[in-house]
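Z., the sequence and structure:
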Amino acid sequence: MKGRISHEPFLPPNRQPGLPLTPDRLLRCIGASGRLRGFDYAAYMIERVANGQSSVYLITKRLYPETAKYFGVKPNAIEHGLRNLVFHCWNHGDREALWKIAGRRLENAPTNADFIDMLAAYIKNMN
């Protein structure tokens, strides 16, 4: 089955019907650890994008600064934390789950914007 992914949707384990899928639960399902600094940043950004409160189109101009202000850090700390989280998920996480969320097999690690966009779209479609 190399090179092919299942077309069944990815569902987090033990998902209870009627309960919304949260960004932190989805992040943990693809291998992200709450110990990583970028975890809370990513969960916040995914929630904002999924709810239509922000957009990944202006990730460096708006989303990073908004998130930085919320967490009381600088925008470059947000970018670095998110990049570290994506790296961790890609190299140590459940890559097949990430492929199912993306809807295709990814050849390379997603960019920060693609990562946030994929997970936000997935949550929006599942809830």
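The longest helix spans residues 75-92. Confidence is low (pLDDT under 50) at residues 1-7.

Let me know what you think.
H.
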